[in-house]
Amino acid sequence: MMPRFISFEGKRTLITGGTKGAGAATVALFRELGAQVLTTARSRPGTLPENLFVPADLTTEDGARVVAEAVAERLGGVDILVHMLGGSSAPGGGFAALTEEEWQKELAHNLLPAVRLDRQLVPKMVTGGGGVVIHVTSIQRVLPLPESTTAYAAAKAALSAYSKGLSKEVSPKGVRVVRVSPGWIETDAAARLVERVAQEAGTDSEGGRKIIMDGLGGIPLGRPARPDEVASLIAFLASDRASAITGTEHIIDGGTVPTV
User: Fold this and answer.
1) How far apart are CA 248 and CA 94, in angstroms?
2) Dihedral pair phi/psi, residue 253, rounded to 5°
3) Closest to 28 (Cα-Cα) out of 54, 57, 49
4) Beta bridge partners of 82
5) In this structure, is the dihedral angle defined by the CA atoms of residues 235, 236, 240 and 246, taken in order, positive or negative?
6) How far apart are CA 19 and CA 22, in angstroms?
7) Which residues are catalytic?
8) Is 211 helix (H, G, I), strand (E, B) or coil?
């Protein structure tokens, strides 16, 4: 039997936000490839085994501490850390509709969980001689949708800058840090964004979809990415096949971003 192109046998892996969409697809793929996986979110779906899950609110410092303690107790450390957690619940209506509370929520959801968990877990990777950290950002850091996602886009831009800084610090010590930047992914969260934009604009779901598509400038491939496609890119970048890749951002958006 030929060996797998990618194998994560013996790799201890934490994937945040791994209960829905691309996060759930990433958890499933890493498990299929042999990884010992933990994931975390506020609540566990019934389809996910309890031993793979840590209930925590990563928008808080306490939540990050709970997850870091669970990693130490259950895995004894981590070899691969994938930050999938992210999303936006901000209202439409442009920048003026974004209150102080909305800005704080977007930063708490899309930037600070990665910062806090890295602070807890990456030093142990360095001490152990290696590891991989993947931050999932968004093409909206360069293509924000002014109707509804300015704060989300700004938080993801901050995550990208933070990730690059971390890579320059820890890559010489054996820890690779890579960014994955999806465009529109066909998920339940994307469907909710369409409905929210449609409601704010006083139109139907097709109208909301058109607003988003127009804001993105279209998708040359003709469709959003699937969750499993995003998971496959993450798996490659986390694997030994990508051992010379660090400090870079890899876009998966069907050609939406016109230039890199």
Assistant:
1) 31
2) -145, 15
3) 49
4) 15, 134
5) negative
6) 9
7) 152
8) helix
Task: Quote the CA–CA distance of 38 and 124 in Å, as a whole number.
Answer: 17
**Helical axes 61-74 vs 112-128, angle rounded to 10°:** 30
Report H helices in the chain. Answer: 21-32, 61-74, 100-110, 112-128, 150-170, 188-201, 205-216, 227-238
In which residue are the tokens 């997850």 written? 67
Distance CA 88, CA 101 (A): 13
Name 173's Cβ contacts closer than 8 Å, sequence gap at least 6: 126
Q: Residue 185: beta bridge partners?
A: 225
Query: Which of 252, 194, 198, 254 is CA-nearest to residue 221?
Result: 254
Spatial CA neighbour of 149 closest among 207, 79, 200, 223: 200
pLDDT in tens, 206-244: 888 777 777 777 788 878 899 999 999 999 999 999 999
pLDDT digits (tens, 9 = 90+) for 4-26: 899 999 999 999 999 999 999 99
Token code pair at residue 85? 């957690």
